[in-house]
Amino acid sequence: MYSADISTAEVVKKQVSYKWRAYISVFTSLVVIQLLAVLFSLNGTGMSSSGGMNYNIRVEYYNADMIMIFTIFWGFITALLLTTKAYREDDFAFVTNRTSGTLSTIIYLWIICSIAGFAASLSGYLLKVVVFLFTSQELLSNNGAEGAGIYVMGLVSLILTIFMFAGFGYAAGMIVQWNKMFVILLPVLFIGLLISLESAGYSMDRFFFQFLFSEQNFWLFIMKSLAVSTAAYVIAFLISNRLEVKR
Amino acid sequence: MMVLLPILILALVVAVTAFSSIGTMKMRLGQGKTGLWMLGGYFVLLLVSMIVSTFLPSETTASMNEESTHSKKRSEISIPMLIAEGKVDEVNKDTLVKEWSFELQDHPLTLEAYVENEGGPGIFIEKTSDLTGKIQASYYRSPIYVDGLKVQEEFKPTLVMNQQTLTVSVENPVDVHYQMFTSEFPFTQFSQNSVGRERGSRIEWGEEAVYIRVPEETEIIGENGNYTLIDPAA
C-alpha cells in the first residue's frame, strides 16, 4: 500500500539516475577503447605514393575513423551487457515494470552514446597531436568537410549511429536472454545470412551501409537511422516483455 | 568471408576490452567514481589536444572545386611547347628555377644527358647569334601540387661543363613525405565537397624543361633523341 502514486515518468527518471551512478564504469571502457583506437590509428588509414618529375611523393593519411568505429562497437557491446540478468534485475530495486525498465535503459543508452559520440568527434585532435609528437613533420589537413554546420551534422549522425548499434546490441542481448540457444544461433544466422546474400548478389554493403551511410541528405539520414534504431529497440522491448520476472 | 575478418577481429578487441572493464562494474557498485574521473580526465585531454592542434604547423589543402580551378589555369601553360616553338619570352618567369652560364672555346659541343628515371625534363637547344664564346642554360619547372598545395621542396638538375662536353644530370630524386589528415566519415557524409572524393591525393605534376642557348655556329654532338633543336623558322 502506497501513500502516493508514482508516475512512470518519475520511475524512469529515478532509474536513469540510478543507472548513471551504478554503471559509471562504462566510461572506463569507453576511454580505454578510444585510447586503444588512437594507438591503432597511428599507423594511418592509408598511404599513396607517386613518382615523377624527379620527385617521390608519399602521402600518409590519418583520421579518427577507427576511433569512431571502435566507439560504435563499444555501444553495441555495452548495450548487450546491459541485457544480462544481473543488470536487468537492478530495475527491480524500484517499483517498476518492464516498460519503465526498458525505457530507462534506452534513455541511459542515449545519454552514454551522446557522450561517447562527442568524445569520438574530438578524438581526431588527440590523434593529430600524437602523430605530430611522434614525427615532428608538417601536417596537411584535407578538410573535405569543415564548418560548424558540418560538425554539428557529423556529430548528430555519429551519435545516432552509435545509438543505432547500441540498439542492435540491446536487441541481440534480449534475444539471447529470451533463449540461450541464440548465443550460438544468432551469430551463425547473421554470418550465414551475410554469406547467402553476398552470393546471391545482394551485399550488406548495398542494403545497409549504402542505405544509411551514402545518404547525403542529413534529414533523410536522421529519419532512416531513427527508423532502424526504433525497430531494434521495439524488438528488444517486445522480447523483454516476454521474459519472466526474475528469470 | 575475408571481408568479415577485420570486422570480427575488431569486434573481438572491443569486446574483450569492454568485458574486462564493464564486467567488474557490478562489484564496484557504490564505490566506483573511477569511470567518471577517467571520463573527465579524457575530456580535459581532448580539449587540450584541440587547443594544441591549432598551434601545430599545418596547412590546409584546397577543396576539390579550388583544385579544378587551379588545374584549368595551369594546364593552359605548356612550358616545353612554348620553348619548342621558340616563344621562351612567353614562359612564366616564376617557373625559372635556375640559370647557368659556361664558356665555350670551340664550336663543337658534346651533350650528354643522364636521366635516372623516365620522364626527365626535355632538353631544348637554340642556336642564337646573341652569344659568342659561351652558352647559357635555364631550367624551368612549373610547381607540383598535392591536393592543391604547392610542394616547397625544389629539384634542380646538375649541369656541368667539362671542356667541350656539357653534361645534364637528372639524378637523386627529391623525397617528399606528407602526413595528411582527412575528415572522418560522419563529417564527409553531408559535405558537398566530399562528393566523389576518392582515397588518394590529386597530384599535379606540372612541366619542366632545360633550355640551352648556344652560339649560332656551334656544332652539337649528342645522342639521338636526347635533345630537341629549336628551329625558329618552324
Topology:
The complex is a heterodimer of chains A (247) and B (234).
Chain A: H1 8-22, H2 26-41, E1 46-52, E2 55-62, H3 65-82, H4 85-90, H5 98-135, E3 139-142, H6 148-178, H7 182-199, H8 204-213, H9 218-242
Antiparallel strand pairs in A: 1-2
Chain B: H1 4-22, H2 34-53, E1 58-60, H3 64-75, H4 79-84, E2 96-103, E3 108-115, E4 122-128, E5 134-141, E6 145-146, E7 149-150, E8 158-162, E9 165-170, E10 174-182, H5 185-188, E11 203-204, E12 208-215, E13 219-222, E14 228-229
Parallel strand pairs in B: 3-9, 3-13, 4-12, 4-14
Antiparallel strand pairs in B: 2-5, 5-12, 6-7, 6-11, 8-9
Question: Would you write up a description of this structure?
Answer:
The complex is a heterodimer of chains A (247) and B (234). With 247 residues, chain A is mainly α. Chain A has one domain. Chain A is 72% helix and 8% strand. Chain A contains nine helices and three strands, in the order ααββαααβαααα. A two-stranded antiparallel ribbon of chain A has the order 1-2. Chain A is globular and about 80 Å long. In chain B, β6 and β7 form a beta hairpin. Chain B is built from five helices and 14 strands. By secondary structure, chain B is α/β, with parallel strands linked by helices. Chain B is elongated. A five-stranded mixed β-sheet of chain B has the order 2-5-12-4-14. Chain B folds into two domains: 50 residues; 142 residues, no CATH class. In chain B, 26% of the residues lie in helices and 32% in strands. The chains are: A mainly alpha (247), B alpha/beta (234). At the A-B interface, α2, β1, β2, α3 and α5 of A face α1, α2, β1, β10 and α5 of B.
Number of strands of chain B: 14
Element order of chain B: H for helix, E for strand: HHEHHEEEEEEEEEHEEEE
What portion of the residues of chain A fall into strands of 2 or more residues? 5-15%
Low-confidence stretches of chain B: 27-31, 63-69
Quick rundown:
By secondary structure, chain A is mainly alpha-helical. Helix content of chain A is 72%, strand content 8%. Chain A has one domain.
